[in-house]
Amino acid sequence: MNMSKAIFVAGAVVLFAAALFFIFTGPYRPVAAVAPGIIDIHCHVAGIGAGGSGCFVSKELRANWRFGIYLRSFGVSEKELSEKGDMLLADRISELAAKSRYVEKVVLLALDGAVDAGGALDAARTQLCVPDEFVAAAAARHPNLLFGASVNPYRKDALERLVWAKKNGAVLVKWIPSIMAIDPADKKLVPFYRKLVELRLPLLTHAGQERAFPGTRDEFCDPDKLSLPLSLGVTVIAAHAAAGGSYAGERSTDRLARLMLKYPNLYADISSLTQLNKYGGLKEALTRPEFSGRLLYGSDFPYLNTGLVSPWYYGPALGPRRLLSVIRTANIWDRDVLLKQQLGTPAEVFARSRQVILKAARSGSGRDLMLRQRIKDELTRPAGFTHGPGGPGNGGPGMTASGDFK
Ligand SMILES: [Zn+2]
Fold it and tell me: In the chain, how many domains are there?
């Protein structure tokens, strides 16, 4: 860089900092310290079917411009996957998460496909499939990965699959109703919901409109459709606090907020709420009284690795000093945690994913005692965290409210 160019860049940086100072709006809530030992409740994995993983990507999605972005955001190439197998992705995720200061474990999410009238996988309508067996194997291989199962309730053997998932350590069941073609309000799903309650498996389900995949059925992500599982006692976690779009003229988030007042078994995760396409989502979730005590931390990895998320978009709320502290954080999970913390996400939100999973693991039927103990042991292993499941402690390393490391 020559001298005049350097002066120009320095000038631009100073101007930007000065501009931030003048338009500084401050965080959405008071900034509180965050402790390590966090569980990320929402982390994606995928695969192309290499190494016998059973993962599947439709021709349509492969041809879509998004496919290349997905692969890049996972930090792998198609060639690498073909050579080393899809498990490489899970290995990379585990490796990256292990380097995080704050996130101790991540729930890796399987994704079942669409199902035909006979209750079998409908490959023609399935865009992306990540089998339970693959994710269970990844979780068995890496202690910092937890098994997030996915079972399409229209499968003929859906209930057996739930039992299998629970036996193999599943901590929740994930749906994306819009691409799995599931109507959560369908009365035919009642036995499935009752099984979820019996097995104490929370349902993490996409809510709100999103165009992450081509050709989705957005009407199935209407939060109101969750009234059925909620009324049956299923612990439901609405992904992304249902940010995005509206149904019957009502904003999706407003519909979810109404349900929060009615059902204490309803939660929402804050994954992807700092994405550009959901701008304002985090502020709304953190400041609306209906969501108080109901939010869980999730990252929506690997979307963090795309241009959709950047601390720069939050300059006015962060101010120059906090912005710098987030930008300087190299680990992708730590950057996500710090960005959300510095914007005012309370410590209890970061601690709640662990609590909700533990609660579910604790209260299964007597028959599952050993499994519950296993999940409990797994969740309370001392490696790298300083507080119990009750909430963050005071003495451990962590980031203080001012943004400095203790
Ligand atoms: Zn997601």
Answer: 1
pTM value is: 0.85
CA distance 38 to 35: 8
Give mean pLDDT, residues 127-144: 95
- Span from the CA of 311 to the centroid of ligand 1 (angstroms): 20
* Position 256 in a domain: yes
| CA of residue 77 to ligand 1 center, whole Å | 21
Tens of pLDDT along 384-400? Answer: 333 333 333 333 333 33
Is the CB of residue 312 less than 8 Å from the CB of residue 300?
no
CA 352 to ligand 1 center in whole angstroms: 18
| 123 closest CA partner among 213, 59, 188 | 59
Taking a C-beta distance cutoff of 8 angstroms, is the pair 142, 179 a contact? Answer: no
Give mean pLDDT, residues 125-149: 95
Domain that holds residue 271: 36-379
CA 338 to chain CA mean position, Å: 16
**3-class DSSP state of 209:** coil
Residue 38 tokens read as 């966090």
Q: What is the pLDDT of residue 372?
A: 55
In a domain, 24, yes or no: no
Nearest CA to 274 out of 28, 107, 37, 69 is that of 28
Which residues place a Cβ less than 5 A from the ion ligand 1?
300
**26-54 mean pLDDT:** 92
